[in-house]
What we know:
Residues 90-198 form the Phospholipid/glycerol acyltransferase domain. With 260 residues, this protein is α/β, with parallel strands linked by helices. The chain has 8 helices and 7 strands; from the N terminus they run H-H-E-H-E-H-E-H-E-H-E-H-E-E-H. It has one domain (4-257). The longest helix has 39 residues, at 4-42.
Amino acid sequence: MRSPFATLNRLWRALMTGACFTLFGIGGLLLSLIWFNILLLVVRDTQRRRRLARRSIAASFRFFLWVVKSVGVLDYEIRGVEALRQDSGCLVVANHPSLIDYVMLASVMPETDCLVKSALLSNPFVSGVIRSADYLVNSQGDTLLPASRQRLARGDTILIFPEGTRTRPGEEMKLQRGAANIAIRCGCDVRVVTIRCTERMLDKHSKWYDAPPTKPHFVVDVRERIAISDFYDAAQQEPTVAARQLNRQLLRQLQYFGRS
């Protein structure tokens, strides 16, 4: 039998989860309606405005994570942050167990790009953030690869969750080949990041009010940087074959290191 304290703690975390995500939504609207419009009026240089927008997003996420940790909703730690901050011109690929994975990573990557689902453009709480940060959208079709190549060539990092959606607990992990294709065809390295959590929280089958029995602890590990030259030699190999090989390697690493 659970103690009254444990029951109250679980109820408190459910209540605070709702309050924190209300804060998240309001914050997204305020950024979109006020701050990003101020940047649009004041900062004429497009590149500088985008950089300021992304740094603002990262700062907002750090504040949000401080709040959720302070009120006891969850704990988290990110190991190997310096490697992420020093990376340039590479893809950052991560598994995707929870709704806040992007928030944790973007909070310590203040100038990263991100490949997002086109459906998010219709979400009033985040659409303004996506547009102001000039994130790549996965529905851009023929322009996605050239845009990725251009951004990687100027030193950007691009964050991608190659599962395409949050991990489905109990199901075999499957990766879409988009991240591997971009890496091969743009000739960029890949940084692997794995995310684990002691409890199921905000996953594909959970509601926001489904507080786990104990407080979740997220661990984000920054792992190796895979050299693209180990997988692809344009003179000897077809890019589609190399992309399949790289995708299998990414799947093995994310499956093995991403286990809770």
